[in-house]
Every structure is written in structure tokens, then in C-alpha cells.
Amino acid sequence: MYRINMTEAQKQRSEKQLEILAAARVKALQVRKENAELKRKEKEIAKAEKDETKEARKKSVAEKYDKLKAPKKPVEQEEYDTESETEVEEAPVVKPKPKTEPKKEPKKKIVYVSEESESESERECEGEGRV
Prior knowledge:
It contains 3 helices and no strands. The chain is mostly helical. The protein has a domain at 8-69. The radius of gyration is 50 Å and the shape is elongated.
């Protein structure tokens, strides 16, 4: 068996007091069980309500989406009455002009001239008598 060290106050308690404490412990344990059960039920109810609102939201969104994406039914035309004929002029259809991209100018070639090449060309030109 387990040996429990009792303090001075615990040693001085009478049998009646110990019985009352034992009854209080039993009652406290029962209250804790009831509170735990109540809390579990509250969580379950909250989850059920959340699921219910989610389902209602899904249904509402699905209905609105179907209504939006459903092909529009053609409107039934009333019988044509020749006596109340009115002329309707249609506006000419203007086709949008395709956008043209601006033409890019070809890049100019960059020619690097060094002094050595100029002097050589001048010498060649002098020899020919062109300068």
C-alpha cells in the first residue's frame, strides 16, 4: 500500500471531517464530469451550427453561380402586328481598326575608326594622287 505523509493539520482531523472531505471530493469529481460533458455538447452544437451555415452558404453560392452561368433563354417575341409597324434604323456597324505597331527603324551600324587606319588610307590615297 501507498504511504501518504500527512501534515499536522491532516492528522488532527476527526473521522467526521474526513468523511465530509471524501464526500466533497466525490461531489467535485461529479461536477467536473458534468461540466466536461456540457462543454463537449456545446462544442458539438457549435460545430453543427457552423456546418449548417457553411452548407447554406455553399447552396446560395451555387444557385447564384448557376444563374449567372446558365445560358440566357431567348425572349419570346410577340406576334408581329402589321398595323403597328414602325421602322427601326440600325446604326452602321463600325469595325474597330486593328492597332498597328510603330515601325522600328533599323539600327545604324557603328563604325569605329582608329587613327592608324586613317593614316594608312591617307598614305594610300597620296600614292594614287587623290588627296
